[in-house]
Design goal:
It contains eleven helices and 15 strands. By secondary structure, it is α/β, with parallel strands linked by helices. It has two domains: 178 residues, Quinone Oxidoreductase, Chain A, domain 1, CATH 3.90.180; 130 residues, NAD(P)-binding Rossmann-like Domain (Rossmann fold, 3-Layer(aba) Sandwich). Strands 3, 4, 5, 6, 7, 14 and 15 form a seven-stranded mixed sheet that branches. A six-stranded parallel sheet has the order 10-9-8-11-12-13, with helices on both faces. Strands 1-2 form a two-stranded antiparallel ribbon. Strand 12, helix 9 and strand 13 form a beta-alpha-beta unit. It is globular.
Length: 337
């Protein structure tokens, strides 16, 4: 049995022997195929994740795919052998927010796979079976390892509610931005603008359905203020302001990125006077996960072009460094047990 990653404290990690935890009542044991690294995993390792949103020591890994190996009491044996992905938020299921299906706002407090509960940077992961979403038998598990960030973007797309013929824009060209392009393209927009900081994502943006690409510096003198919907994915206050400036009066803005604490925000006067409709997303509720799996199964979502590196778990520190280096040649980095 190969080892698992354990981050003992910021900047300190080990590869430890891994013994699968047998599933208890209501749980399933999943053999992990791959786990992705994102900015929040870098925060865990670097020690700058917000207080209360990480618990050390920890096995990270909230973006993953795998195959069910065993089912605990009360779980259908039909799950065994099925390819799956899984929600991260460990919601209580009984508070008002959970009853409204707003599980990412669970009143019992924050608990999430890979941050406060053991994650998927290990050969196996044991978790509540109710969090699993079953994939088609012929699903590509490497591509499916990216369905967690896709589900977060699906939550944004559902809140944005783009309608055919509207003008839509995406600000940010990372993994979330490229998924946003794919989800918004499916709504048949009249125009789909992608705004980035560099020109290197132009070809991929156009491949996924963008009708126009522009760097922020090139666009800024002429920010049109005519878009119906803008989804922000860059995670900076500056990107949020650019997103708002792109909108027409009464337009719809969805923020998915998380700026540094204390960053200057949107101008409330501008929001009120132009009557902008602002939504935010942190994580993905079940409806967004179900929507993502349906779209993926239908062949309308293509995560594989975003994957540029696959590395063994033993290279965890190198993978974190690579994912955060800002190299245009580095896209999504996956770790394989």
């Amino acid at each position: 049995m190969t080892g698992a990653v354990v981050v003992d404290a910021p900047g300190r990690h080990r590869i430890v022997p891994h013994v699968p935890r047998e599933p208890g009542p209501g749980e399933a044991l999943v053999r992990v195929h791959a786990a992705g690294i994102c900015g929040s995993d870098r925060e865990v390792y670097q020690g700058n994740r917000p207080e209360g949103y990480v618990r050390y020591p920890l096995t990270p890994g909230h973006e993953w795919s795998g195959t069910v190996e065993a089912a605990g009491a009360g779980v259908s044996g039909a799950l065994v052998g099925r390819k799956v992905v899984g929600e991260g938020f460990r919601n209580c299921q009984v508070c008002d927010r959970c009853h409204e299906s707003e599980t990412t706002l669970c009143g019992a407090g924050y608990e999430e796979t890979g941050f406060t509960q053991p994650g998927a940077m290990a050969p196996t992961l044991t978790l509540p079976a109710r969090l699993l979403h079953v994939l088609p038998d012929d699903a590509d598990l490497t591509a499916a390892a990216l369905l967690e960030p896709a589900a977060c973007v699906a939550a944004a797309a559902l809140k944005a509610n783009p309608r055919p013929g509207e003008r839509v824009a995406v600000v940010g060209t990372g993994t979330l931005g490229m998924f946003a392009v794919q989800f918004l393209r499916a709504a048949c927009p009249a125009e789909l603008l992608v705004v980035g900081t560099r020109d290197d994502r132009r070809a991929l943006s156009e491949r996924f359905g963008a009708t126009r690409f522009g760097t922020k510096d090139a666009l800024e003198p002429e920010l049109p203020g005519t878009f119906d919907v803008v989804v922000e994915t860059a995670g900076s206050a500056d990107a949020a302001r650019t997103s708002a400036a792109l909108l027409r009066r009464g337009g719809r803005l969805v923020l998915t990125g998380i700026p540094a604490p204390g960053a200057d925000g949107l101008d409330p006067t501008d929001l009120v006077v132009r009557q902008l409709e602002v939504h935010t997303v942190f994580g993905a509720p079940p409806a967004a996960w179900a929507h993502t799996v349906r779209v993926f199964a239908a062949g309308l979502l293509d995560p594989l072009p975003l994957v540029t590196h696959e590395m063994p778990l033993a290279d965890f520190a190198r993978a974190v460094e690579l994912a955060g280096a800002g190299d245009p040649a580095v896209g999504k980095v996956l770790l394989r047990p």
